[in-house]
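Example S7 (structure tokens).
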């Protein structure tokens, strides 16, 4: 028998609450705050995002027009992959813990299942939004060039959407640690699908320039099916790296990672809760405090590399 099949996967039960829960929550909140302070959107959006997309496409991703349906769909996937670690997508890393709970075993075949559930949630939401987005077109705030005071309307939509998503992640994290009621207790697959849906929802608020270019192209086609397909490919590109990372961690360790988690069930709860809280706090603080402060609304500390 393959050594990986002999490893018992971690439990999703909530019978055992982690010790020092307050410390875990406090450290996770602090990590999220620090990440929001030091985050460089110029680095992840332009230096990494644009460079990766241009390298894969073989031309300037931002400056070259999207050519044709096939070109648009390729651009959708590539720009999604290039935007993996942007501020409007990095929270998808919080899915690593829940995916480890949703795996029934550690065979290569079984590990595909939580990845598939994550993608299911993401593609349903992103596909629906792409379809509706093409029908609504410029009536969406996300595609507007108007401003309300110093705030562009499209960034107001970003602030609202990512604020809601961030709070949802924080709730799920606190629930995983037993601080709040857990509606997904004993239902790890439902937790992963929900996280996938939240990742798909990132597109509803995303201001990433390459995504904005894709959105305008989709609306220009006038075909909601193209919009749905392009947004689905964007979401798949968004979660490809974290899906591969999850698989490599588990298979690369030949089951040791899962054995380590299984030795104490609370370890999985801590991993899940800490990631969800930290990245949820980052999402709320970045989009609802730091981003408005950059427009002169409120105050937030600025690092030298972000001036």
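Recovered sequence:
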């Amino acid at each position: 028998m393959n050594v990986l099949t002999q490893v018992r996967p971690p439990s999703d039960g909530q019978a055992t609450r982690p010790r020092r829960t307050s410390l875990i929550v406090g450290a996770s909140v602090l990590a999220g705050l620090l990440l929001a302070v030091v985050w460089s959107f110029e680095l992840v959006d332009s230096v990494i995002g644009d460079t990766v997309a241009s390298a894969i496409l073989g031309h300037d991703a931002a400056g070259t027009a999207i050519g044709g349906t096939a070109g648009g769909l390729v651009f959708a996937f590539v720009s999604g992959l290039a935007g993996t670690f942007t501020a409007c997508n990095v929270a998808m890393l919080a899915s690593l813990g829940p995916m480890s709970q949703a795996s029934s075993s550690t065979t290569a075949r079984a590990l595909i299942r939580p990845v598939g559930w994550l993608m299911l949630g993401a593609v349903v939401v992103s596909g629906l939004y792409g379809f509706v987005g093409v029908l609504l077109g410029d009536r969406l705030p996300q595609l507007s060039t108007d401003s309300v005071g110093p705030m562009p309307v499209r960034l107001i939509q970003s602030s609202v959407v990512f604020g809601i998503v961030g709070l949802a992640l924080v709730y799920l994290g606190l629930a995983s640690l037993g601080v709040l009621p857990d509606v997904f207790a004993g239902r790890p697959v439902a937790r992963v699908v929900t996280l996938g849906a939240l990742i798909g929802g990132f597109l509803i608020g995303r201001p990433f320039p390459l995504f904005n270019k894709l959105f305008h192209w989709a609306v220009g086609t006038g075909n909601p099916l193209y919009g749905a397909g392009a947004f689905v490919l964007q979401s798949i590109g968004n979660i490809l790296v974290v899906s591969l990372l999850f698989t490599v961690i588990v298979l690369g360790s030949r089951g040791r990672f899962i054995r380590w988690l299984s030795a104490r069930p609370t370890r999985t709860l801590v991993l899940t809760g800490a990631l969800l809280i930290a990245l949820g706090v980052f999402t709320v603080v970045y989009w609802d405090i730091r981003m408005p402060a950059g427009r002169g609304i409120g105050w937030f500390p600025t690092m030298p590399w972000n001036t």
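Notes on this example. The chain is about 65% helix and 0% strand.
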